[in-house]
């Protein structure tokens, strides 16, 4: 079945956060026009379900040197975009919690609002969005039942939908985030956003906000580690 244009994103990745910020400045209805597909480091249960589906998680851990570089580079890029950033500290994070919560929020018609609440908590306030109280509060700010969103990670139906997202990522050869796709054309990283929009909208219709930088060059990485 032919799929429409899509964005693979991760709440873990600062570059995903920045890229989608830029995307929505240029395409305010991005959440309505594109399929937003969450991508995260799977837990043992999800990994087993992926293997049963004949898929796996394309990820190679980054080196310490690259990790340290990204810590500095993300602050630099956030400043260029005029974003306030507080680097979160992740202690044994369980990434199913926010990403499966997003899938339920989207089903309930509040996916965009939930995305905004979670990214604000994580990247603007440095909160651990893998902790149930933090995610519950974010969900409630998005107009959702916080307890129901937190419980999504234990729902067999939502977990199956999450596995489908990661299987799609596997077949799309996703190895890093953010990752954009339209038809056969694939674009990885913050610095490929303009190319994605050109392919999506055509060169004469890509909106460029006044005073915005034409290109932001960064060293992007996967949902694992810092990217």
From TrEMBL:
Residues 8-200 form the DSBA-like thioredoxin domain. It catalyses: 2-hydroxychromene-2-carboxylate = (3E)-4-(2-hydroxyphenyl)-2-oxobut-3-enoate. One of its GO terms (molecular function) is 2-hydroxychromene-2-carboxylate isomerase activity. Its EC number is 5.99.1.4. It comes from the Bacteria. The keyword Isomerase applies. SUPFAM superfamilies: Thioredoxin-like. Gene3D superfamilies: Glutaredoxin (3.40.30.10). GO terms for biological process: glutathione metabolic process. The active site is at residue 13. It is an enzyme of class 5 (isomerase). Keywords: Isomerase. Belongs to the GST superfamily. NadH family. This is 2-hydroxychromene-2-carboxylate isomerase. It comes from Micromonospora echinaurantiaca.
């Amino acid at each position: 079945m032919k799929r429409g244009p899509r964005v693979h994103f991760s709440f873990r990745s600062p570059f995903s956060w920045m890229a989608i910020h830029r995307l929505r400045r240029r395409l305010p209805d991005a959440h309505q026009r594109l399929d937003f597909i969450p991508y995260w480091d799977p837990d043992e249960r999800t990994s087993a379900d992926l293997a049963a589906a004949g898929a796996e998680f394309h990820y190679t851990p980054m080196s310490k040197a690259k990790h340290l570089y990204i810590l500095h580079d993300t602050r630099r890029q956030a400043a260029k975009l005029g974003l306030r950033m507080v680097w979160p500290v992740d202690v044994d994070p369980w990434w199913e919690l926010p990403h499966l919560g997003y899938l339920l929020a989207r089903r309930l018609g509040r996916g965009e609002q939930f995305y905004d609440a979670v990214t604000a908590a994580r990247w603007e306030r440095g909160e651990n969005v893998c902790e149930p109280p933090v995610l519950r509060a974010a969900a409630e700010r998005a107009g959702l039942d916080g307890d129901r969103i937190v419980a999504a990670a234990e729902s067999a139906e939502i977990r199956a939908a999450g596995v489908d997202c990661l299987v799609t990522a596997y077949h799309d050869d996703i190895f890093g985030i953010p990752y954009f796709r339209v038809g056969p054309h694939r674009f990885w990283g913050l610095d490929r956003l303009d190319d994605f929009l050109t392919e999506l909208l055509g060169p004469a219709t890509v909106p460029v906000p006044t005073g915005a930088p034409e290109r932001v060059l960064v060293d992007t990485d996967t949902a694992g580690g810092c990217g």
